[in-house]
Amino acid sequence: MTDTHRRALVWGATGFIGRHLVDNLVRCGWDVRALTRRTSAPRIDAPGGVEWIEYDPSAPTHTFTRAVAGAGVVFNLAGSSGAVASNRHPLESLDSNCRLQLQFLDACQRSGERPHVVFASSRLVYAATGRHPVSEEHPLAPRSVYAAHKLCVEQYHAIYAQRGAITSAACRISNPYGLDGEVGGKGYGFVNVLIQRALAGKPLAIFGRGLQLRDYIYIDDLVRAMRLCAEHPGARNETFNLGLGRSISILDAATQIRGAFSGGPIEFQPWPAEHETVESGDFVLDGSKARALLGFIPAFTLERGLEDIRERLGVTAPAPVRLAAQPPAARAAVRITTA
Asked: What is the residue extent of each domain of the chain?
């Protein structure tokens, strides 16, 4: 990779993934420019500095033109998240997840620099799978406006790649978790919410019985995989599943979190109707393509990831939890949701 291509724009740099990605890139010797609309969000203080650009909604063309100038790689993490929220407010999701993306891609085309764009998509674009491993070739059937927009933006990138304006790598990310600098805020994803509640000694609430399988990827593994999508020539115009490649139930995950941080009891709550409509069922990720083309092998199981968070926070290791909570038997038909 040339020096030019080691100049990265991180769009969405103050979000959970973005903060960790900026830190990883700087430590790996990249020149980083960060684009954010959140003026009050925490910013990385990195050796050598990070150039910060504030999104100006009154002049999007100017903002994006300035942001992409000279950037060989763009990590595109922008957009609102939340499957349920997107169904409640579909037009807001359209604006934040689609319209801005077209303005950004137009700026890339006008620049003439043909940057490589690593786009953060979602596992939620897939159709229901049962317990069979999901490869990148699995049928697509979003169950929320959020997931539909993620898939739409994947196609935007593919169209602009066909035009020769960019190259791209679409990253269909499983459930990420890790040390979240915005403790006390809404958190990122249900795993981080459970971690925050456990650290506060509060009950860990899950819907239904919590028996659905999920794949959990630690943030350090995720940002390393995304960096490989930028560095490796084999990632050009490809789609990758990014996850651990090993699934456990939500109940087992909650039990491990409770044990790692001495959290309160696990509480089984009734299934909210609007969550049931976006529930994807079991998810088992096939990560063989990322392993073969990128050489990506995750380093953190869920247990090891939780241990790393505990070490970084200086939390004393608790006594082992001997018995997992038991899900209610009377309502076997109810399910649990996550995004």
From this structure: 4-176+218-242
